[in-house]
Amino acid sequence: MPTEIKCPKCEIWNKDSDYCSNCKHPLSPEIIENNRELEREARRTSILPSRTEIFLKNRKGSRYFLLRLIYQILYTIAFIFIAIASFFAYLTATPNG
């Protein structure tokens, strides 16, 4: 039994076709999802890194030992802080905790 699909763009009914016979808009769910994934990937790759990300990346691989040391110390402090905060969040979320 042939399947009829109404084109969302031009609203013409099409039989067993992946693309609209009138406007060539994709009708197949697989093709539509592939197109959306390609658009998402293009958006993801076109986003420029923020100034903070660039700053941290430059300090992490700096040729100066002091800057690398400061980066590692601050990174360690932030990691410990997040670990402690996560532990307290776990305690408050658990019953009888």
Write a concise synopsis of the structure shown.
By secondary structure, the chain is mainly α.
Give the key terms.
97 residues; mainly alpha; 2 domains; two-stranded antiparallel sheet; 2 strands; 59% helix; 6% strand; elongated
Shape label: elongated
Strand residues, percent: 5-15%
Helix percentage range: 55-70%
Number of strands: 2
End-to-end Cα distance, whole Å, is 60 Å
Largest sheet: 2 strands, antiparallel
Structural class: mainly alpha
What Rg is obtained from the alpha carbons, in whole angstroms? 26 Å
Count of distinct structural domains: 2
Strand order of the largest sheet: 1-2
pLDDT averaged residue by residue: 89
Q: What is the H/E order? A: EEHHH
* Structure annotation, total helices: 3
Uncertain stretches:
none
Explain what this protein looks like in three dimensions.
The protein is mainly α. The longest helix has 29 residues, at 65-93. Helices cover 59% and strands 6% of the residues. It has helices at 29-46, 51-60, 65-93, and strands spanning 4-6, 13-15. The protein contains three helices and two strands; from the N terminus they run ββααα. The chain has a two-stranded antiparallel sheet. It folds into two domains: 4-46, no CATH class; 51-93.
How do the helices and strands line up, and which of them pair or pack?
Blueprint: E1 4-6, E2 13-15, H1 29-46, H2 51-60, H3 65-93
Antiparallel strand pairs: 1-2
